[in-house]
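<purpose> Linking amino acid order to shape
<body> The protein record starts here
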Amino acid sequence: METSTLLIISTVGPENPEKATLPFVLATASQALDAEVTMFLQSSAVVLAKQGEAAKVQAEGFQPLAEMLDTFLESGGKLYLCSPCLAQRQIAKADLIEGAQIGAAGTLVSSVLDAGKVVTY
């Protein structure tokens, strides 16, 4: 059986804990079903990959975001961050969590073309 692939694009960061958390709920649930998941964070969502920031995000009724982010990465998820979005927020590569990768438009386009399905938040 061929592995399902999913790309999740998120543009919402710590300013809206519920919307920031939902992509990670979908990602970890998909991984539990053996899907290969890539996440691409854009806009304020890139802040979630700055060391210590995910621990500050807790949406009522959901598992803490930091735990879901750890589970996502430990389960083989790929996490890309928009390079212009990082630059705009003055977030350096050294400020990022382990496992986060920096990408630009070409990385996103390639991920979209390779994915079986794409979901945007």
